[in-house]
Amino acid sequence: MSKLWVPREYQPACVDFLIRNPRCNLWAPPGMGKTTTVLNAVDIMYLTSELQRPILVLGPLRVARDVWSDEARKWSNLSHLITSPIVGTEKERLAAVRKDASVYTANYEQIPWLVAYYKEKWPFQMIVADESTKLKSFRIKQGGRRAGMLGKVAWLPSVDRFVNLTGTPSPNGLMDLWGQQWFIDQGKRLGVTFAAFIERWFYREAQNGQAHFGRLKAFKHSNDEIIGRLQDVTMSLDPADWFELEQPQTTTVKIHLPPKARAIYKDLESQMFHELEGEGPDIEAFNAAALTMKCLQLANGAVIVRDDTAQPPVKYVQHIHDEKIEALESIVNETAGPVLVAYNFVSDKDRILKHFGDEVAVLSEKSGMKRFKAGQARIGLAHPKSVGHGVDGLQDVTNVLIRFGHDWNLEERMQMLERIGPTRQAQSGHKRPVLVYDLIAEDTVDETVLERHKTKRDIQDLLMQSMKASRGIFDRRAA
After folding, report:
1. Distance from C-alpha of 360 to C-alpha of 373, rounded to nearest angstrom
2. 123-137, 308-322, 422-436: which has the minimum mean pLDDT?
3. Which of 446, 432, 394 lies closest to 416 in space, CA to CA?
4. Whether pLDDT at 409 is above 70
5. Cα(123)–Cα(138) distance, rounded to whole angstroms?
6. Superfamily of domain covering 249-254+321-457
7. Could you tell me the pTM of the whole model?
8. Can you say whether residue 110 is alpha, beta or left, with left for phi > 0 and alpha for psi between -120 and 50 degrees?
9. How many CA atoms lie within 13 A of 447 on its CB side?
């Protein structure tokens, strides 16, 4: 059941900024409500006839497929904004573009298809680039293909609004800004070409005595000058200005299991339900406990399977989905600076390492801890058991914790948070809030674990209640 969206203290000013500035940037970390802010602004602009045609939101696949539709449905005063995700197979995309909607969403990979499909009949009055750093590769000539194709339609007479949304506009340095900003002003503020931008604010650092082959570096004055030029079309939100520093700011990031994964999960859940009913009060019964672990693994994306028919028996990892990997990537890209990531199963550690490569430092390894503390890795990956008591200095590296996987152990969960928590931030002189992101697979045991940590209720009681609810069985204890 949807509820009324009530804006946070800073959101009305953001809504007003978006309405008054047809082409602009909104910079804010995940969890500060960029999606609902834009939806509210769009709703007002439809009511006042400022918008008379649909809008297009571009984002990573998970964001385009789920996040915008979920947020619109979640709030009763925004649920009338019909969304249509243009994702999937060509048949599914064709059905989506033919649907009557106010907000169409698509992943960046669909830009060439959309441009080719609509040709000169581009229907969207407003374009929103969610995680706009995907456009940093734009150049007048050459550059990234998707950003280049978007550039062909971004300045059509029919497109009179464009919004860049991101938490980190320049994760790899100031050079990331030019491509994004071109969609706002066609180079008016930072230079009509990327070459002009580089020539004005960067120089090559000499390498082996040869300046021509050195790395590009910004002049000392470049940062202030560039940011100053963007101020009139940019609203930037700092969590430290709006949240209490004494408490972590926690955001639940929900992901949806794909249909195949959901079917497998339901089968596992059904087996666990029967095991729990038959075993009485002891949650540690082998089969029930094992099935619970399997459900947690599947929620993360991969299940550890034992093949007893082999001699000797072998274990292997069965990949199911990448929804949490995609969600993790979005937050890492949207969050300024390095992040601390908690995993629960070795299979998840291996998958994260495979996906992010050299960007990851494993903190249980001495070399990994050294790399992370030296700022040489974007992700510090750790199991809660490995960074509990005795680990110090992480608060100087990051103020962001992302929980990829979850476990029943509340003490370990809290100990990991305390490595970068508000107390340690304050002790080290950092005046910044601690940001925590829980990746939760919707309608899975992930939610039960989270409820356990919030209420400390009996594990079996929670499992039984949640599984009965998923089957529509009335539970008097929950009434």
Report:
1. 12
2. 308-322
3. 394
4. yes
5. 22
6. P-loop containing nucleotide triphosphate hydrolases (3.40.50.300)
7. 0.82
8. alpha
9. 14
Fold of 11-237: Rossmann fold (3.40.50)
**What pLDDT is stored for residue 100 in this prediction?**
97
Over residues 237-278, the pLDDT tens digits come to 988 888 888 889 999 999 999 999 999 888 887 776 545 444
10: buried, middle or exposed (CB in 10 Å: 19+, 13-18, 0-12)? middle
Which residues of the chain does CATH 3.40.50.300 include?
Answer: 249-254+321-457
Contacts by residues 37-40 (CB-CB < 8 Å, ≥ 24 positions apart): 37/7, 37/11, 38/128, 38/163, 38/165, 39/68, 39/71, 39/72, 39/78, 39/81, 39/103, 40/5, 40/7, 40/11, 40/15, 40/78
The secondary structure of 314-338 as a DSSP string is: EEEEEE---HHHHHHHHHHHHSSS-
Contact 410, 417 (CB under 8 A): no
Top-confidence residue, 478 or 130: 130
End-to-end CA distance of the chain: 17
